[in-house]
Amino acid sequence: MKIPFPLKTAIIDDNRTILKLIEVMLEDENELEIEYFQDPKEALEAIKNKQFHLVITDINMPDLYGDMLVRQIMDLRLGIDIIVMTGGINLIDAYACFKAGAKEIIFKPIDKISLICSINESIEKFKKWNNVLEHIITQKNL
User: Fold this and answer.
1) Prediction pTM value
2) pLDDT of residue 94
3) Where are the domains of the chain?
4) Rounded-to-integer distance, Cα 108 and Cα 122, Å
5) Residues 6+ apart with CB under 8 A from 104
6) CA of 97: how far to CAs of 13, 59, 82, 112, in Å?
């Protein structure tokens, strides 16, 4: 199945200021279709019901901690890339998120260049998948 672009992206952080900052940082990113969530449980329901391919989430949130959210998203088996953000350097939390399936961790305060680089890695991964798929389809039709 071809991955549609712009890439459907969920950004989750219980801090409205952080969400607004990320929104400003990504305002020129035309390869993304972004939905912002303050409530991780609401975000998880949206992820279950929509075709998200990239999730960027905070670790430390009320009601649903980051590694649990990552684990629940990965359990859906939808091929979603997950980038985790954290304000604290806690090796145990970072390891738990990686073990659950996160592909990368970004530290707060968020640096625009780091954020864009992480996102671009996911974009390139999905574009490569689309190219492979197109090649296979072309070869089958010959």
Assistant:
1) 0.92
2) 79
3) 7-141
4) 20
5) 83, 84, 118, 121
6) 15, 8, 9, 22
Those residues whose C-beta lies under 8 Å from the C-beta of residue 35, and which sit 6 or more positions away, are 8, 9, 10, 11, 46, 52
- Tell me the C-alpha distance between 29 and 4, whole Å: 15
**DSSP category for residue 62:** S
Task: Supply the pLDDT for residue 3.
Answer: 92
Task: Looking at the chain, list the stretches that DSSP marks H as alpha helix, in order from N- to C-terminal side.
Answer: 16-25, 40-49, 66-75, 91-100, 112-141
The CATH architecture to which 7-141 belongs is 3-Layer(aba) Sandwich (3.40)
Gap between the Cα atoms of 56 and 52, Å rounded = 11
Q: Measure the CA–CA gap between 5 and 42, rounded to whole angstroms.
A: 23
For residue range 67-112, list pLDDT tens digits in order. 899 999 999 988 999 999 988 767 778 788 888 899 999 988 999 9
pLDDT band for 60, please (50, 70, 90 cuts): confident
Mean pLDDT of 18-38: 96
CA 11 to chain centre: 7
